[in-house]
Amino acid sequence: MTKYNSKGYISIICLLIGSSVIALSLSIMSLHINDYYLQQSSFHRVKAQYLAESAFILTMHHLFLWSEDAIHTYIDMANDKNKAAPLLEVHLEKHFIPKLSSMENEISKQMKEAFSEYEHEHGFDVSISVATDRKTLMINVHGYYENARVFLEGRAKMPLIVNEHHKSEEGWDSIIIQALYLESLVQGYPKI
Question: CA gyration radius for the chain?
């Protein structure tokens, strides 16, 4: 009978066990690394969402203030008996819509000062445009933090005269003006 030398089998078994331990360790490490990057991505997405919503709220605040100012100047012009008041749409076209680009710059300046403590690359873009019907404002906000991006799109209705010849309780003629209001806000993707 021939005897086989069994001294080499132990090294092959150790090699198989060692390579399976290494493969198992690498797969577990890969799962942990992927989980870490997923958590970081989610964390960055939350910050991008916060930046976009903050910019949108600040934009709406400025729009409300400036539309209220335009309404008050229009009411003062309408109450002046010496001058004929123009239509509200014409007044807004002259005094409100030209201020939109300077308002975008003012919002950018205020927001950059507010989020200076963020460590990664971050920011936002605000775009305000007037729809073709000249009665609706389109507000687009893009917030980003590191590699996360959030896009918000809102539609706001311009101030509108609801009833021009309304008698108040004291018997005076009064004008009822519907103020600027947010019609819709959606989160989505940028238009190409």
Answer: 31
Model confidence at 17, in pLDDT bands (50, 70, 90)? very high
Per the rule left: phi > 0, alpha: psi between -120 and 50, beta: everything else, 134 is left
Of 176, 160, 178, give the one whose Cα is nearest residue 168.
Answer: 176
Closest CA to 113 of 151, 58, 150, 153: 58
Task: Say if CB 152 and CB 66 are below 8 A apart.
Answer: no
Q: What is the mean pLDDT of residues 141-145?
A: 88
Give me the sign of the Cα torsion angle 159, 184, 43, 33: negative
Best CA proximity match to 91, nearest among 76, 105, 74, 104: 74
Average pLDDT over every residue of 145-164:
84
Residue 103 has pLDDT above 90, yes or no: no
Element (H, E) at 152: strand 148-157
Among 134, 73, 114, which residue's Cα sits nearest to residue 65? 73
Alpha helices by DSSP H, listed for 80-162, are 88-95, 100-114
More confident residue, 65 or 4: 65
**How buried is residue 155: exposed, middle or buried, by Cβ count under 10 Å (0-12/13-18/19+)?**
middle
pLDDT digits (tens, 9 = 90+) for 117-128: 778 888 888 888
Q: For residue 85, is pLDDT > 70? A: no
Which H/E stretch holds residue 125? strand 122-130
